[in-house]
Structure formats: structure tokens, C-alpha cells
TrEMBL record:
Methyltransferase domain residues: 50-153
UniProt keyword annotations, A-Z: Methyltransferase, Transferase
Keyword Transmembrane helix: no
Organism: Candidatus Nitrosarchaeum limnium SFB1
GO aspect biological process, one term: methylation
Record-given protein name: SAM-dependent methyltransferase
Recorded GO MF terms: methyltransferase activity
Lineage, highest ranks first: Archaea, Nitrososphaerota, Nitrososphaeria, Nitrosopumilales, Nitrosopumilaceae
Length: 335
């Protein structure tokens, strides 16, 4: 089959060939957020990931997924990426950690990838929003999901990303016809003092090389689509999933588990969204309580202004097995 390499896909591939992300020198302790996410999912649901297959779509240089594979050594992993340079780094990490439960494969998520087989868990963290057609990319990913499988997505937030996008636009205007000149873009960003990273990009870099990769991903990326709750809902409505739930959000300074309830109770000691901190009277809370779940999500969206969302998509079978009460409260049925 002929590969679908549109102009946007080519630009993104070229960018990551020059500036793989995370940078090759990034240490494991700096990239544990994916592992932490899966541990929280296990803890809240009282489950254990064992003897299942993971697909990491858009694995980048493999730092995050090799941490995960090292921890879940009874599971199988396949990491996909469009950048050969990133995959070279990923394989070096795999060999350095002596992992035999993970493989890496070059793939374009805009193409049909169903020949890769079926997976219990699909991870697509911070990748779908960089595709030329995210809805098509999601469709391609779901063709590899088992009937009782679950997909995790991380998408950039529109409301919390407003200032970053203004800064990105400023640099784009200053670069004029040299928009693909990343070295000049990096220099401009440093000179203007715009290399101040929000939560999610703050990997505590230890070298100029690491910071360069962060700067490119943060303010010079070749393509990105930002989402608010309404956009997320539209994206999932087009899919064949049974439904979805927002697992967590990130803001400019920290991350929160997402909770649409109003009592402020939590099972584990991790920050959660809490509407009662903002709507403090019985009068205002009564209005919130009367809302549909989608409107509650919209209210929290406006109040917290996320710069990113972690979303979990479920098939009917995976939802019926779900034991996470918080996610059940947040679950939005599609069909």
C-alpha cells in the first residue's frame, strides 16, 4: 500500500530527525510521568497490568515507554514512531536497559496499521494533536485495539495553551520565510526569554541539547491542534469507542486527577479538581449539581483552563470491567 506522507507529516518527520524528543541525553527519572499514570490507574482500579500487550503510538526517543516496559516486565510492548532518528535512540535505550519485552517499529499513524495486530492497551500521549488529521489517526489506532481494550490519549489544551500559542505566533512572524530554520527560532526564543516551560514540558533539562529539543517541541513544532472539552467530545463521537472519561488535566503549574463530583472526597492523596473550591455557596453548588455531566466538564474546563488532558477511551467490554469509581463518574457514553 502506498504510504500517506502529506506535507504536514513530512514537516513533522523532518523536525524530529533534527530534534528528537525527548533529547537522547534525557535521564529516566525525568520521564516517569507515563509510568506514574499507569500506576495510578492500577491503584484506583485495584488491577494489575500483567501478560498483556501495549502499543505506544508516537513513542519518540523511547524514554517514557522503556521506563514502563522495565516496570511491567511481564507485558509485551511495541513502540511506533515516524522518525528513524528517534527510533535509533529508543533502541539504544532498550539495549542499555537490557529489555527483551519491547520492540520498535517505524510507522506513519496516518496510514492503516491494522497489520500490527491487536493490543490490550494503546498509549498515544502527546501525539494525536500533531497529526495532519487527528480523527483519522484515532481511527487507525482503534483498528488495533482488542474488543476489551483501552486507549489512553494526551491532548494539548486550548484554554491553557493560549499564551503559548501567542508566543509561538510571535516567533513565526519574526522568522518570516525561515519558519523551518529551527536554530534561528531557538536563538530568538532564548533572546526573548520565552524558554520558560509550563508544567508538562519542565523536564529539568541538564544540557543545551536537551533544552533545544524542549524549545522546538514547545514553541516551534511544525503542527499542533489544541482542544477544549467540546473539541474532545467531537473527536470521540466520530470514533467507534463505547465512551470516554477525562482521567486528568495539566495546568501551567501542576497536574490534577479529573473529578466532576462536588464533595471533594478522594481515594488517593493526589491533587484532584474540586469544584467546591470555586463554587462555595449552597446556591452556586445547587446550580452545578443540576447540570448534565458534559456541562459539569465544561464548567471545570473553563475554571481550570487546562494546557493538556489525559483521556481514557473504552470499548463496551473494557468499560463493563472498569472498577475505577472516579472514572465511572466521569464516563461519557458515545453509543
Amino acid at each position: 500500500m502506498r504510504e500517506n506522507f502529506d506535507n504536514i507529516t513530512k514537516k513533522v518527520e523532518t523536525m524530529y530527525m533534527k530534534y528528537p524528543y525527548p533529547s537522547p541525553s534525557t535521564e529516566a527519572i525525568q520521564t516517569n510521568e507515563l509510568l506514574n499514570l499507569l500506576k495510578i490507574f492500577e491503584l484506583e482500579g485495584g488491577i494489575k497490568f500483567e501478560n498483556i500487550k501495549f502499543l505506544d503510538a508516537g513513542t519518540g526517543s523511547g524514554h517514557r515507554i522503556t521506563n514502563v516496559a522495565q516496570h511491567y516486565n511481564k507485558c509485551e510492548f511495541l513502540g511506533l514512531d515516524i522518525s528513524e532518528k528517534s527510533l535509533e535512540i529508543a533502541n539504544v535505550l532498550k539495549n542499555k536497559k537490557k529489555l527483551d519485552n519491547i520492540k520498535f517499529h517505524k510507522a506513519n499513524l496516518m496510514n492503516n496499521i491494522s497489520s500490527l495486530g491487536k493490543f490490550n492497551i494503546i498509549l498515544c500521549m502527546g501525539v494525536l494533536h500533531h497529526l495532519s488529521n487527528p480523527a483519522k489517526g484515532l481511527e487507525n489506532l482503534l483498528s488495533t485495539l482488542k474488543k476489551d481494550g483501552t486507549i489512553f490519549l494526551y491532548l494539548y489544551g486550548k484554554l491553557g495553551g493560549h499564551k503559548r500559542m501567542l508566543n509561538k505566533k510571535l516567533i513565526s512572524i519574526l522568522l518570516a520565510k525561515e519558519k523551518s530554520n529551527y536554530s534561528n527560532g531557538i536563538k530568538l526564543i532564548r533572546e526573548l526569554g520565552l524558554n520558560k516551560f509550563e508544567y508538562g514540558w519542565n523536564l529539568n533539562f541538564k544540557s543545551k541539547e536537551e533544552e533545544d529539543s524542549l524549545i522546538v517541541d514547545y514553541l516551534l513544532h511544525a503542527n499542533e491542534t489544541l482542544y477544549d472539552f467540546n473539541d474532545i467530545d467531537k473527536l470521540f463521537k466520530k470514533s467507534d469507542l463505547y465512551g470516554y472519561a477525562i482521567f486528568g488535566i495539566t495546568t501551567g503549574t501542576q497536574g490534577f486527577l479529573f473529578d466532576s463530583s462536588y464533595d471533594g472526597r478522594k481515594k488517593i492523596s493526589i491533587p484532584q479538581t474540586n469544584i467546591s473550591k470555586f463554587l462555595k455557596s449552597d446556591f452556586s453548588l445547587a446550580h452545578y449539581k443540576s447540570l448534565s455531566l458534559k456541562d459539569k466538564c465544561r464548567v471545570l474546563d473553563i475554571i481550570y483552563e487546562p494546557n493538556g488532558y489525559t483521556i481514557v477511551g473504552f470499548t463496551r467490554q473494557s468499560f463493563e470491567k472498569l472498577s475505577n469509581e472516579r472514572l465511572k463518574k466521569n464516563f461519557i457514553k458515545i453509543k
